[in-house]
Each structure stands twice: as structure tokens, then as C-alpha cells.
Design goal:
- The structure holds 2 protein chains of 2 kinds.
- By secondary structure, chain A is mainly beta.
- Chain A is 12% helix and 62% strand.
- Chain A starts with a helix and ends with a strand.
- About 6% of the residues of chain A have low confidence.
- Classes of the chains: A mainly beta, B alpha/beta.
Chain lengths: 210, 226
């Protein structure tokens, strides 16, 4: 008998696996194009993430794959991303009559593995000079939160569920190589003992389409 | 010419691989900035939130820093006594700067006692990873192996151990006006715990200790006669 959280995890994994299979169906089912992309990711922490690490993240990477299905304007795909937030701080930590001060390294690794659905305004061809889209990503977020103060190191690794509405655009660079720019807002729901997390993301990179 | 054309087709793939490698490198965490022993200093203060520190006016302070240690441990803790007088005079100055009056308890019963003590703990650590190249990458290695090979120790650990000593200075406020006489208990109203890696006995270490004592008082604004 699985506990509710364990059952939820199993359900989430099953849904993710089915969706992954759907995306990877042979090209014969869908003659439309596919694309793989790699992006440099920047992120600005908000909410409880920003309370812990206030500095903008300039260290991140993203990779993804998307395929057009059902309609020339609609694509689904998967993406993986890694953002490193870090702030070296001396701000005292205060709670319940206890104050702790000293050099601190506050760091969060946030890594979403998302299933994405997106609507492309001008279909799979460049009828415009750019190729804008809006989309939504859902899936698990791996959050590794760490506070080092003195010789003490407190680390918490948690799997969360999150959503990421996003908009962006592709633009032609060279033959089958496109430039990619995307903006997203990542909301990561509370899980375990960890808080909820949120951050804005900006990705810039290249895509290879076929 | 044919070979050249083959390589041209591989360029996009190579560029993607290079981009992923580059982005993976830039996405790593930056340096912690912990370079000197003072970077590991931590000051913790705790206080009784129901206690009014303004109701107390006088304090007394024993003229020694007590070295706390396990009676079964070695005869000496090897902590220097050199700083003790500086520590005590700094504590007196700081409490006086907050409006409290330092008194001789044999002449005037104080409202609270300030107790200063110190302790030491030795640590033996086993780092997570230890590759040859981390510390000896400059040294020519034998053909057949590389700098990335792990160094294995005979015991269960696969890393090289290191050790350091950590010192902790305690400053306590004991309430002398409100004591549980029947229960033979005294109430601790405020504690400062100053913890750091022990370094050399020099003026820098003294400055570190004094700076941290000042920080303990500074982060306790409620500690005031006024």
C-alpha cells in the first residue's frame, strides 16, 4: 500500500513516461519538423527563493527537444535546465531570539525536467522574420539548497512539482540553425520540508531544426 | 577535398557539443570566498525574550576566562591564555558602553554576572573526493595512468584525511536578582557563542576575537540599560 506522496510520485512518473513516449514516436506518425536546442540560462529569484538567495543567477544551461504534432502550429517537447543561484552574504540570520552571523554561502541548484506544449504563431515555416511562441512546461524540479556558515554546511535536496509558463521566439541564423530567446516564470510548489520556489528565467541559444 | 567536406558536416554537431561543455562549466557554483581562517568565524547569540535587560544596572565578572574541558581528557587543552585579559577588558568595556556598571561583588551585590569561558574541539575530516591532480597535478605522472586517478587509502576511506582545531568562546549572562533559591538554580538570560578555527597566536588572532566579541554585542540591541 503506497502512501499518498509515494503514489503521487508514481503517478507523476507514469504520466511523464507516457508523454515522453508520445514525443519520441517515429517520424512516420508526424511528418512535421523537430528541433533540438541548447541555451545559456539566466534567472532572477523571487519569493522565498529570493529571500534565501537574492542575487541574479548568471550560471545556467538548458537543452531541449520539440516536435510538431497534430497541427503545424502546435508542438510538444521536453527540456532540461540547470540554474545555479549563489549569494555570499554576511547578513545575520535571526529566528526566535537566536541571531547567527558570519560569512555565508547560500546556494540553490534548480533543475527542472519539463514536458512542454507550445503554440507557434506562424506555423513551422518562417512566414514572418521571427517565429514567436507561447507555451507551458510542467514537471519535476530538483532543488538542492545549501547554506554554509563557518564549518557547518546544511544541505537539503528535494524533488518538487512545478510549472513554467513561457514565451519566446526563434529567428533564422544560418540554414537549419536558428537563434532562440525565451522568457519563463518558474513556480515550484512546496515539497517536504522545503519552501516553494520561484524565479524568472531568460534563455538565449541556438536550435537545430529538421 | 572529400575529407574536408566530411568535416564540414560535423561542424554543427561539434559546435553544439562545445556549447554544452562551455555552458556546463559556467553553470557550476562559484568560489565560496572562504580563504582565510577568519572566514569560518561564526557568532551566535541567544536571549530570554521575556526578560527585560533594562531592569538590571550592575554586573560583576570573574577575572579569569575558564577553560572548559572533559576531566578525563588530556591534562591541557593547549589553548593559549595570552588573550584572556584582552577578552575580559573588552567584555567589560562593551557592557559599560551599554549603560551597565561594573562592580566588585564583594562590595556591591551585582544584578547579573557575566561569565566567560572557552573550549576546544579537534576535528579529523575525510574529504569527499581526492584525485591525484588536485594537489600534485604539477608532478610528472607515470605512463599508463592519468592525473584523474583516485588515491585509495588502506582503510575504508578513499580520501586523504585532514585535521583542524576549533575554538569556542562563551559569554553568559546569569541573572543574580532572580534566582530559584529552593531549586538551587540560576537563570541564563543571554549567551554569546563565538566559534572559529584556531590559528596562530598573533595579533591577527587577537583582533579576530575582539571583532567577534563586538559583533556579539552589536547583534544584541536589547542588551541595554537604557
Amino acid at each position: 500500500m503506497l502512501s499518498d506522496p509515494a503514489k503521487e510520485r508514481m503517478d507523476m512518473r507514469s504520466t511523464f513516461a507516457v508523454a515522453l513516449l508520445l514525443i519520441m514516436v517515429p517520424a512516420s506518425l508526424s511528418a512535421q519538423e523537430w528541433a533540438g536546442y541548447v541555451t545559456y540560462e539566466m534567472a532572477y529569484p523571487t519569493g522565498e527563493t529570493g529571500d534565501f538567495v537574492g542575487d541574479m543567477s548568471l550560471r545556467g544551461v538548458g537543452i531541449g527537444y520539440r516536435r510538431f504534432l497534430f497541427s503545424p502550429n502546435f508542438a510538444i517537447g521536453v527540456s532540461w535546465q540547470w540554474n545555479t543561484f549563489q549569494e555570499n552574504s554576511r547578513d545575520p540570520i535571526e529566528r526566535d531570539g537566536i541571531t547567527i552571523s558570519g560569512d555565508q554561502v547560500r546556494r540553490i541548484y534548480a533543475s527542472p525536467l519539463l514536458l512542454n506544449a507550445a503554440y507557434y504563431y506562424s506555423g513551422p515555416e518562417y512566414t514572418w522574420r521571427v517565429w514567436p511562441y507561447v507555451g507551458l512546461g510542467v514537471g519535476p524540479y530538483y532543488i538542492d539548497k545549501d547554506l554554509q556558515i563557518g564549518i557547518a554546511d546544511y544541505e537539503e535536496k528535494t524533488w518538487h512539482f512545478g510549472v513554467a509558463p513561457r514565451l519566446g521566439m526563434y529567428f533564422p541564423v544560418y540554414k537549419m540553425i536558428d537563434g532562440v530567446v525565451n522568457f519563463s516564470y518558474n513556480y515550484v510548489f512546496k515539497a517536504g520540508d522545503d519552501t516553494a520556489h520561484s524565479f524568472w528565467g531568460i534563455g538565449i541559444g541556438f536550435a537545430y531544426r529538421k | 577535398m572529400l575529407k574536408y567536406k566530411k568535416w564540414i558536416h560535423m561542424l554543427p554537431g561539434a559546435a553544439v557539443v562545445a556549447a554544452i561543455l562551455f555552458l556546463t562549466l559556467v553553470s557550476c557554483a562559484q568560489d565560496s570566498g572562504f580563504n582565510a581562517v577568519k572566514d569560518y568565524d561564526v557568532v551566535v547569540t541567544l536571549y530570554d525574550q521575556d526578560f527585560n535587560f533594562g531592569n538590571h544596572a550592575t554586573f560583576a565578572l570573574p577575572d579569569s576566562v575558564v577553560h572548559l574541558r572533559n576531566p578525563d581528557a588530556e591534562a591541557t587543552d593547549n589553548i593559549t591564555w595570552v588573550y584572556d585579559s584582552h577578552i575580559l577588558s573588552e567584555v567589560v568595556d562593551l557592557f559599560e558602553s551599554r549603560g551597565y556598571q561594573h562592580v566588585n561583588p564583594q562590595v556591591t551585590p551585582p544584578d547579573f554576572f557575566v561569565l566567560v569561558s572557552v573550549t576546544k574541539q579537534d576535528w579529523l575530516e575525510f574529504p569527499y573526493e581526492h584525485h591525484w591532480w588536485v594537489n600534485w597535478s604539477w608532478y610528472p605522472h607515470w605512463p599508463g595512468w592519468t592525473h584523474t586517478w583516485d588515491v585509495i587509502y588502506p582503510a575504508q576511506y578513499t580520501e586523504e584525511p585532514y585535521s583542524f582545531s576549533q575554538g569556542t568562546l562563551f559569554i553568559d549572562i546569569i541573572d543574580a536578582k532572580n534566582m530559584d533559591v529552593t531549586g538551587e538554580r540560576m537563570y541564563l538570560r543571554w549567551t554569546a557563542v563565538i566559534n572559529g578555527v584556531l590559528g596562530y597566536t598573533d595579533s591577527k588572532s587577537q583582533n579576530r576575537i575582539i571583532t567577534n566579541i563586538k559583533q556579539a554585542i552589536e547583534q544584541s540591541p536589547y542588551l541595554s540599560r537604557n
